[in-house]
Specification:
- Strand 3, helix 3 and strand 4 form a beta-alpha-beta unit.
- 31% of the residues are buried.
- 51% of the residues lie in helices and 20% in strands.
Length: 134
Amino acid sequence: MKNNFTILVVDDEEMMRDLLGKILSREGYNIITAINGVNALEKLSNNKVDIVISDMKMPRMNGFELLKNIKSEYEGLGIIIMTAYGDTYTVKDALLLGADEYITKPFKSYEISLVVERAYWRLLSSNKVNNEIT
């Protein structure tokens, strides 16, 4: 079922995009990447995406701005925020703005897998409930 899920990885660092792409592809997810928030919004308008994993500090449009745009335009999309270690105010603000999960950098591959897995199951259960209601 994971092969039906598409994750958009948004980070201005190519190495991080590649790393996340490899880790999550091995888990069975479809991966799309974007180099910043502006590029991410373009990708969202042209692709069916289930989860967005976004860095907070990026040029052109930071993670907060991207998060606000996603929440206003794309209902039901899972959002995971990545931030630098120890930046607890950023995490709190992102969660208050509607992020579903967060992970602090640096992280181990199993940690990102667990965070994505939680978001995946939350979205599946939410969609099942929504489909039963309608």
